[in-house]
């Protein structure tokens, strides 16, 4: 009954009304759902397993899309230089890109919330030191930090070990690069919340500082964090694609959309355009739909625009 009541309240809320009144937002949600669903269910709905070496045939390499004169209906979007189905490769590659994006954003949110809460609630020297660290971090581009971290790991570990943990290195590099935006947002909201009556009452009854921050202040500062996290998901996917395109992202055994674009780029000017164009379109559609949802969520949660 409680669940049904919560669902009923959600469908009666201003957020749901704002969502249904925006055709662009509805279309973006549908596209994002299709992209994410296709990636998550790729092992079950993909036409082929592009990374099963036993099923690959070099004779099927460089087949154009199915609607062209030389196309094969079995391969809707054609094949690459190894005979892998491009459509299936995109679905599997999106799994890796979304995994990196979600995990990197989760890491950024965790670090940013921790730093922002501590800086905003404790204040004083702690606030000054943490915010200066955030300011210094903001002077370094995400890609530069990721390249630096990847270079250090490559120099410190053997190549075989690096290939095994490359996915985690990329997640850490992107996630640790984007926490300042979360920290500054949470700090600003915490500075407002810490002087309100409910926080003062919690202090009076003797609750510890950490409990007040976690159980009282944190739930009231999560709204802006959710918006930034949605927007940062698209940025994280793009950052991973950029790193993989440069050859320092995920290993070739776990190709993402960026890796597929890099592989196809080698054959772009020889006429096999579909190998890189379709993964590029998939990346654009995925990031654009997520960003449009983030823009809508930012406006929907802004009380000044209601």
TrEMBL record:
SUPFAM superfamilies: MetI-like. Its main location: membrane. It is a multi-pass membrane protein. It holds the Pfam family OppC_N. GO terms for cellular component: plasma membrane. It comes from the Bacteria. Residues 94-294 form the ABC transmembrane type-1 domain. InterPro entries: BP-dependent_transpt_permease, MetI-like, MetI-like_sf, OppC_N. One of its GO terms (biological process) is transmembrane transport. Belongs to the binding-protein-dependent transport system permease family. This is Peptide/nickel transport system permease protein.
């Amino acid at each position: 009954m409680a669940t049904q009541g919560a669902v009923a309240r959600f469908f009666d809320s201003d957020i749901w009304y704002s969502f249904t009144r925006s055709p662009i937002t509805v279309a973006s949600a549908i596209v994002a759902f299709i992209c994410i669903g296709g990636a998550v269910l790729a092992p079950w709905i993909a036409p082929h397993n592009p990374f099963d070496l036993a099923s690959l045939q070099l004779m099927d390499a460089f087949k154009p899309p199915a609607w062209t004169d030389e196309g094969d209906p079995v391969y809707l979007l054609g094949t690459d230089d190894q005979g892998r189905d491009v459509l299936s490769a995109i679905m599997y590659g999106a799994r890796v890109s979304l995994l990196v994006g979600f995990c990197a954003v989760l890491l950024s949110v965790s670090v940013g919330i921790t730093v922002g809460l501590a800086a905003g609630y404790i204040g004083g020297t702690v606030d000054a030191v943490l915010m200066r660290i955030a300011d210094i971090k903001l002077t370094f581009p995400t890609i530069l930090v990721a390249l630096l971290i990847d270079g250090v790991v490559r120099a410190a570990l053997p190549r075989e070990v690096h290939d095994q943990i490359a996915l985690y290195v990329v997640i850490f590099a992107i996630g640790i690069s984007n926490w300042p935006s979360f920290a500054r947002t949470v700090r600003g909201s915490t500075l407002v919340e810490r002087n309100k009556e409910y926080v003062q009452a919690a202090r009076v009854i003797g609750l510890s500082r950490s409990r007040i921050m976690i159980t009282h202040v944190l739930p009231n500062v999560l709204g802006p964090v959710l918006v930034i996290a949605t927007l940062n998901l698209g940025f994280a996917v793009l950052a991973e694609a950029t790193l993989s395109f440069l050859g320092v992202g995920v290993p070739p055994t776990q190709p993402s959309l960026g890796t597929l674009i890099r592989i196809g780029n080698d054959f772009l000017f020889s006429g096999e355009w579909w190998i890189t164009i379709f993964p590029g379109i998939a990346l654009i559609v995925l990031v654009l739909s997520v960003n449009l949802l983030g823009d809508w969520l930012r406006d929907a949660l802004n009380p000044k625009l209601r």
